[in-house]
Design a protein that fits this description.
Helix content is 53%, strand content 2%. The chain has 309 residues and is an all-alpha fold. A two-stranded antiparallel ribbon has the order 1-2. It is globular. GO terms for molecular function: channel activity.
């Protein structure tokens, strides 16, 4: 439960809001704090101080907000979180698989760049649409990695993964009914050796989770741009591995179409490599992550170009 309302205005929360946290804003929300360059004292944004606004506050003649309402955001019921996770994964699966099927049906007219752009844009819009409800994991590898690093409760992991798997199967069979007999275009199969495919899926899973962990768990990251950052990472990963392994980076991206098309070639690669890569990516960011300052004050930036919350 968020306890930031018990702290002073100038304090920095010791634990950032993370995906799946009941009532948490999208990837930390607007919690940036900066130092005032003109007079040297701390200045807080209205969005940082106020969880809600009262009529009396707006009526103050001096133009200041005055006392603020620091009520914590209401918790999100688990059923709504799981429902949002199902819908978000369904949209992602339908779009990312459909573009691959259309690319096969039209003899490559979409091109690898188009497939990558579609996957990245879909991830971006789904995160913006459902991230504040469920955290928009959309991927069992992400859910497991968050739980392993204690950013997500293990007791909710089966329900999240169940929703993701069910959404994948529903989207795959819907696409099979629409595009049959071109369903094979949506199945991720390696065009290289299984070892090379495993290595690629591991690397792109690492890349994805490294970025996700950064924008979702670090209060110093630019959390408001999480959807853009993660969507761009997905697009980059598909451009890297799409031609060789299919650029899955998500076990349910491969599982649903494999079931619908009854094609399980190298399915073990896509069920294991993304999870191992995500665990390593999340762990790697945790190792290089800057530690929180216990006295509640921002540390001076070590470089002029660093982004700080």
């Amino acid at each position: 439960m968020d306890t930031s309302h018990n702290q002073d205005v100038g304090s920095v929360p010791s634990t950032p809001a993370t995906p799946g946290t009941p009532g948490a804003p999208l990837f930390g929300g607007f919690k940036s704090q900066r130092s005032s360059e003109s007079n040297g004292h701390r200045r807080s944004s209205v969005f940082n101080n106020c969880r809600c606004f009262s009529v009396e506050a707006w009526a103050l003649e001096d133009g200041n907000i005055g006392s603020t309402c620091s009520l914590p955001p209401p918790p999100v019921p688990l059923v709504k979180k799981v429902g949002a996770e199902f819908i978000g994964t369904l949209i992602l699966m339908f779009a990312s698989t459909a573009v691959a099927i259309v690319n096969q049906k039209t003899n490559g007219s979409e091109t690898l760049l188009g497939v990558a752009a579609c996957a990245g844009l879909t991830v971006m819009v789904v995160i913006l649409a459902t991230g504040h409800i469920s955290g928009a994991h959309l991927n069992p590898a992400v859910t497991i990695a968050f739980a392993a690093l204690k950013h997500f409760p293990w007791k909710q992991v089966p329900m999240y993964i169940g929703a993701q798997v069910l959404a994948s199967i529903c989207a795959a069979f819907a696409l099979k009914g629409i595009f049959n007999p071109f369903m094979s275009g949506g199945v991720t199969v390696p065009s290289c050796g299984h070892g090379q495919a495993f290595a690629l899926e591991f690397i792109i899973g690492f890349n994805l989770m490294f970025v996700v962990t950064a924008v979702a768990t670090d209060t110093r990251a630019v959390g408001e741009l999480a959807g853009i950052a993660i969507g761009a990472t997905v697009m980059l990963n598909v451009l890297i591995a799409g031609a060789a392994s299919g650029g899955s980076m998500n076990p349910v991206r491969s599982l649903g179409p494999a079931i619908a098309a009854n094609s399980y070639r190298a399915i073990w690669v896509y069920l294991t490599a993304p999870i191992v890569g995500a665990l390593c990516g999340a762990g790697a960011y945790s190792l290089v992550k800057l530690s929180e300052n216990t006295d509640g004050q921002d540390k001076p930036a070590s470089t002029a170009g660093s982004f700080r919350r």
